[in-house]
Amino acid sequence: MFGKYRVLLAPMAGVSDIAFRTLCREAGADMAFTEMVSAKGLSFANDKTRHLLALAEGERQVAVQLFGHEPDVMASQAAWIEDMMGESLAYLDINMGCPARKIVSKGDGSALMKDPALAAAIVRAVKGAVSHPVTAKFRRGWAEGDETAPEFARLMEDAGADAVTVHGRYAEQLYRGAADWGVIGRVRDAVSVPVVGNGDIRRGADAVAMAAQTGCNAVMIARGAEGNPWLFSQVQAALAHADEPAPPSIEERIAMARRHARLLTQREGRNIVRMRKHAMWYMAGLPGAAAARGRINYCTTLEDFDQVFDDLIEIAREHS
Ligand SMILES: Cc1cc2nc3c(=O)[nH]c(=O)nc-3n(C[C@H](O)[C@H](O)[C@H](O)COP(=O)(O)O)c2cc1C
């Protein structure tokens, strides 16, 4: 199933909205995830939850990630998503990796790694309710040092998962330390369905190394793309053994930030507040960034952001 989808934008709550997906796709992401969506929230027809599923005009190859722990609710909401999204939907994924306390405390996300039977029941129920592929995204294991991912992956495959994604950290690790890519290879050996490798891809060479070391069928990128959609073009070039495009200039970084801000306002005015963290990421390491950071926290309109960006360009010119 990943013949066409080799470089994927990861699901990122609060980040992988229409604006960010648009920029990452333009840069070369083969497929993009929505932010994770609560099955329970959808079942209450919660507007905020449904809003997370809004797509860009003509957007295709979208994967939707559900979180929850009740097989029947997950199944009915997966069927609703399939109906609603039609051709835009590439596949449905179940979140079994989120380590956030408010998620885990309800038995969702990576808590499912502690209850493989329930995780398998969810995959089975969702699989029975939809005709699209169903996948599971999980971590190396729950407790640090207790690698359960290969066995867990086998159970998910037996339950009907069409592919699995592995992030090489334990849930207890949160985002600390380095991702272990060895586990991706061990999951690859354990199952016959496609395996997506995830964790710490920051440059084109990382994707090439992960693919070579693990035999994974696709790579998934999250934090490396923050403020850096260009990473997708670099990864695509590296995987194709072509020369990687040069890193963006300061002007290109600021131009991307401006475009990002505009895309956010097109959806909904209040979304512009989301631009604060993106702006910080685009500016990281630029001359004048430290001073601009404080101002960004007070930006509430497109004009506010543009003013900060204008000043950064000015400072960059003075430095060059
Ligand atoms: C801000 C943020 C939000 C995330 N939200 C989700 C999510 O909704 N679902 C999920 O499965 N993983 C989520 N993740 C985890 C990423 O998808 C990915 O597995 C992890 O960041 C490791 O990949 P990376 O090293 O490329 O960042 C999130 C990560 C970050 C940084």
SS-derived structural category = alpha/beta
The domain count comes to: 2
Percentage of residues in helical conformation = 40-55%
The unique ligands bound to this protein are: flavin mononucleotide
Strand order of the largest sheet: 1-2-4-5-6-7-8-9
The top level CATH class name of the largest domain: Alpha Beta
How many strands in all?
9
Broad shape: globular
Extract low-pLDDT stretches.
Answer: none
Mean pLDDT figure: 95
What is the CATH third-level topology name of the largest domain? Answer: TIM Barrel
Tally of contiguous helical segments = 14
Rg calc: 20 Å
The share of residues in extended strands comes to: 5-15%
Question: What is the CATH architecture annotation of the largest domain?
Answer: Alpha-Beta Barrel
Specify the CATH homologous superfamily of the largest domain: Aldolase class I
Main beta sheet: 8 strands, parallel, barrel
- What is the H/E order? EHEEHHEHEHHEHEHEHEHHHHH
Domain DUS-like FMN-binding: 8-310
Function: Catalyzes the synthesis of 5,6-dihydrouridine (D), a modified base found in the D-loop of most tRNAs, via the reduction of the C5-C6 double bond in target uridines.
Cofactor: FMN
Pfam family, one: Dus
